Automatic annotation (TrEMBL):
Natural source organism: Saccharothrix variisporea
Name of the protein in question: Poly(A) polymerase
Residue ranges of domain HD in the record: 263-373
Keywords: Coiled coil, Magnesium, Metal-binding, Nucleotide-binding, Nucleotidyltransferase, Transferase, tRNA processing
GO biological process, one term: tRNA processing
One function term, GO molecular function aspect: nucleotidyltransferase activity
UniProt xrefs under InterPro entries: Bact_CCA-adding_enz_type3_sf (IPR050264), HD/PDEase_dom (IPR003607), HD_domain (IPR006674), HDIG_dom (IPR006675), NT_sf (IPR043519), PolA_pol_head_dom (IPR002646), PolyA_RNA-bd (IPR032828), tRNA_adenylyltransferase (IPR014065)
Stretches assigned to coiled coil: 386-413
Cofactor: Mg(2+)
Length: 479
């Protein structure tokens, strides 16, 4: 077994962060078993980036029935949903623990599901893992780092490599290729050349992976610290051609301002600028997806104009449909699909504002159409300004500042978050003598449009407008 002593600071960091781990190890040691902390917690402790709470992963020489016995009476809850894979779960003091027996799995090369085989050594368990940076364990009894594949050196060099050959690793589980891009985004590592080469050669193997698993990795990549690097690796190696083909397709399209190499690079800049505008502690997945995909409609709408110009008319409409279709295929939630596609649809609306020509009615419609997405739309529109002409960029930002001031002014006068007709459905039915039905809905819509155009009306004015509309529609109004 390859082992090295950690520095006192490393040990303190690990064990002070996870006192439950030390306590559990004592139970295993008393029963004659070894217990090792593995996974992201070990890696992040060595990187000095332990933050928040972790679900703790352990590996042990004890077989599942022995693990269940050791957890019984100590853990607050124990479950065996993963026991077919050698994993027993437990809860203790707000932490989720998973203890897995040493594994020495084999794969069939068709699915990513292994034929589970229990192993006998910690080294054998670690060398089957995805990357050397994740193939380390902390022996909780010996206070020793177990590192048979050079993971600690890889951490120091910020290199992502595989314990076995990349071809073998990715053949066992093609999702590891997407995980490589995810770790590049999360950790700021660079992939080893042999890893990149294998990803290029084997990208098509990702088609074996379920959309749900792809979506989970893509979301983690996009919410990482360096998402652009992860996306560029996906595109460079062909992974994106399999899981998000609309992205590399944008590399073919020169944007109409000729200020970027192509729409793809423009979109990466917009993504970075949108991230800079985030105000929440947690990354905003919806905003990042919208920034990345906001121009995916351009390839399908490109038109070469007389005189050498290029246009992309209605690319926001086409792009919204494309975004909805792709995100559904990736099994994103209905809320994410609708929010992202709506942001893509609305991202050009501001450019009709000119130098402030919008009426208050147009401002109300902008706010109403955006709804709860308005704060994100503000960020997306601002991020979409990537011109290198500083004077033009400053002018655009000043214009948007003015629009936000107008929104704030009108919002102070009216409740823009809940623009509704000045008369409700019950009053419409009473005034027009109508039963519930389509005509009431039509009248309600008329009054809402009137509200958007003219702002709040007093009651008598709203009644007069409704009655006039009803007569124009041939509705017999009660005397």
């Amino acid at each position: 077994m390859s082992g090295s002593k950690l520095s006192p600071d490393d040990v303190v960091e690990l064990l002070s962060a996870f006192p439950v781990a030390d306590e559990l190890a004592e139970r295993f040691a008393a029963a004659g078993h070894r217990l090792y902390l593995v996974g992201g917690s070990v890696r992040d402790a060595l990187l000095g980036r332990l933050t928040g709470s972790y679900d703790l992963d352990f590996t042990t020489d004890a077989r599942p029935p022995a693990v269940q016995k050791l957890l019984s009476g100590w853990a607050e809850a124990v479950w065996d949903t993963g026991i077919a894979f050698g994993t027993v779960g437990a809860a203790k003091r707000g932490l989720t623990l998973e203890i897995t027996t040493f594994r020495a799995d084999t794969y069939d090369g068709v699915t990513r599901n292994p034929e589970v085989t229990f192993g006998d050594t910690i080294d054998g368990d670690l060398v089957r893992r995805d990357f050397t940076a994740n193939a380390m364990a902390f022996d909780l009894v010996a206070r020793e780092l177990v590192d048979p594949t050079g993971g600690r050196a890889a951490l120091g060099a910020k290199v992502l490599d595989t314990p076995a050959t990349p071809e073998q690793s990715f053949s066992d589980d093609p999702l590891r290729m997407l995980r490589a891009a995810r770790f590049v985004s999360q950790l700021g590592f660079r992939p080893a050349p042999r890893v990149v080469e294998a990803m290029r050669a084997m990208a098509g193997e990702l088609s074996r992976i379920t959309p749900e698993r792809v979506q989970a990795e893509l979301s983690k990549l996009l919410t990482g610290a360096f998402p652009r690097a992860g996306i560029e690796l996906m595109v460079e190696t062909g992974l994106a051609d399999v899981v998000l083909p609309e992205l590399p397709a944008m590399k073919l399209e020169i944007d109409e301002h000729h200020q970027h190499k192509d729409v793809y690079h423009h979109s990466l800049v917009v993504l970075e600028q949108a991230i800079d505008l985030e105000e929440t502690p947690e990354p905003d997945l919806v905003l990042r997806l919208a920034a990345l995909l906001h121009d995916i409609g351009k390839p399908d709408t490109r038109k070469f104009e007389d005189g050498g110009g290029v246009s992309f008319h209605h690319h926001e409409v086409v792009g919204a449909k494309m975004a909805r279709k792709r995100l559904r295929a990736l099994r994103y939630s209905k809320e994410v699909v609708e929010d992202v596609s709506q942001l893509v649809y609305l991202h050009l609306r501001f450019h009709g504002y000119g130098s402030g020509e919008w009426t208050d009615s147009a401002v109300r419609r902008y706010v109403t159409d955006a709804g709860h997405l308005l704060p994100r739309l503000h960020k997306l529109v601002r991020a979409d300004c990537t011109t290198r002409n500083k004077r033009k960029a400053n002018a655009l930002q000043r214009t948007y500042d003015e629009l936000e001031r107008r929104i704030a002014r009108i919002a102070a006068e009216e409740d823009l978050r809940r623009v509704r007709p000045d008369l409700d459905g019950n009053e419409i039915m009473k005034l027009l003598g109508l039963p519930p039905g389509p005509l009431v809905g039509k009248a309600w819509k008329f009054l809402k449009e009137l509200r958007l155009d003219r702002g709040p009306l007093d009651h008598d004015e709203a009644v007069a407008e409704l009655l006039a509309w009803a007569r124009s529609e041939g509705i017999d109004v009660p005397g």
